[in-house]
Amino acid sequence: MPAPGELTFVAPRGAAKPPRHLADLAPTERREAVTALGEKPFRAKQLSQHYFARYAHRPAEWTDIPAAARERLGSALLPDLMSVVRHISCDQDTTRKTLWRLHDGTMVESVLMRYPERVTMCISSQAGCGMNCPFCATGQAGLDRNLSTAEIVHQIVDAQRALRDGEVPGGPARLSNVVFMGMGEPLANYNRVLGAIRRLTDPAPDGMGMSQRGITVSTVGLVPAMWRFADEGLSARLAVSLHAPDDELRDTLVPVNTRWKVREVLDAAWAYAEQSGRRVSIEYALIRDVNDQPWRGDLLGKLLRGKRAHVNLIPLNPTPGSQWTASRPEDEREFVRALEAHRVPVTVRDTRGQEIDGACGQLAATER
After folding, report:
1. Is 330 a catalytic residue?
2. What is the mean pLDDT of residues 53-73?
3. 109 noted as active-site residue
4. Which of 109, 151, 283, 332 is catalytic?
5. Is 191 annotated as a binding residue?
6. 18-29: per-residue pLDDT in tens?
7. Which of 39, 151, 332, 360 is catalytic?
8. How far apart, in whole angstroms, are the C-alpha atoms of residue 221 and residue 217?
9. Is 106 helix (H, G, I), strand (E, B) or coil?
10. Which domains does the chain have, with CATH numbers?
11. Which one of 41, 146, 184, 259 has the largest count of C-beta atoms within 10 Å of its C-beta?
């Protein structure tokens, strides 16, 4: 296995650092932080229980903690990180997109999608994105900064509270799936994303107790980080945003391909599949007359044939003023047939959220 290397994408200088939050800290670090404030170490477990299990981040709700200690603990370990600018909904309010304003004024988005058999949350890991994919609203906006672990986690905590309190139609529920497919390239914010996965899946009260198998992390193909991710011992799913099976086109659609080619990306993906025991999801946005030709479907099928992979075809959600648009239905069907001819599992993604600026980055762009 090649050395994983270290890959970093630096946010613009002067980006304000988010305040320290309970969710940024591992359990031992929380006990140390509480002790440094003059409190007994067990207060860390109480705070964790309130935040990760009860979704109660206001000191007035912590009735098992002395009133004199609540404000001190709250201001030091549960500061306000982000606030809701607005929610917009569709699908009888079962799809809800949230625009967040972070502590420094930066905007990010998340989407909650309730289906009859599951509830899925699509979350952001960066404000903006530095990958510069030309058909992506977030990529065209550029990178503002990485999100902290706590800023990532809080999107989930807020969704769990909303589901518990009946804010989403269908009665009380819990999240079953979390996908890192919102704003940003998750593996370009590696340590904080990994920290968020730990907080989401650590048993209560140290974390939220979610199953790793319900978490999907996407990447455009940051190969060193993919090899590193394969060594973490996780059972989360990896999703590779491929969008083209040939290097000539992918160099244009996914500019990072000029650094790591399709074969290198897929080799790293197969390593993750081997280590995790999970199928890799191959994400492929179908773009009219660009990447939806049957011969490209055939080439993709040849690359994936016999591999532990599933293709998720995504009808492109066009952004205002963009030259890119969704494939014709007949071209989509031909592409599916080309993959099925190689016995490659394939599904076409449900196009939820188009009427609420569903493409990631569209809603934030309206506030810039």
Report:
1. no
2. 93
3. yes
4. 109
5. no
6. 999 999 999 999
7. 360
8. 12
9. coil
10. 22-77 (1.10.150.530), 82-365 (3.20.20.70)
11. 184
